[in-house]
């Protein structure tokens, strides 16, 4: 059992081995919804009741964001940040090396992006079993995609539709593969597929990945305003 703490009124699970815990869940056929929570998501959940409910009901909530880690440290909890893209990639590689009996599903992003992401992993892990599709499907393609997921029964399903859409989609479709680990991965497919570049190591190691993302996508500045809001709320919050 993992230790559970709280960020505002949202659960966060503390561990030094999320990968091992999730692999155990997969090998024991235990369906799992994973949410990688950062400051932006935590603040969004204060206004979005549905998102808050998805987080509160998730089987695992991982601290993916320097703000969340600082919040925990202020309250005496020592926890390293775990980047969602790194956790997801580690799972893909671990299951991929186990071959065809551990199928993986990529769903989301723009047309062609998950194709390139899947090709990246296939080039280094020959036996990896990936099914993939983009996030702009319409009927009847969507119905056919759901049927494919039901037939294949992936062990790991990564969904890149953005927050909160990906969390809502996972909550509504877990019945398609009830024993899978489901993770919302945001823009990870864009990075794996070569559409975007992840921040250099210096930015990642010094809690500045948000700054590099703002440099890449200046239109995000309004969304970034939640970061100081999160910091102020963390100072005042007494829950």
TrEMBL record:
Lineage top rank: taxon: Bacteria
Glycosyltransferase listed as a keyword: yes
Protein keywords: Glycosyltransferase, Transferase
Entries under NCBIfam families matching the protein: wecG_tagA_cpsF
Protein name from the UniProt record: WecB/TagA/CpsF family glycosyltransferase
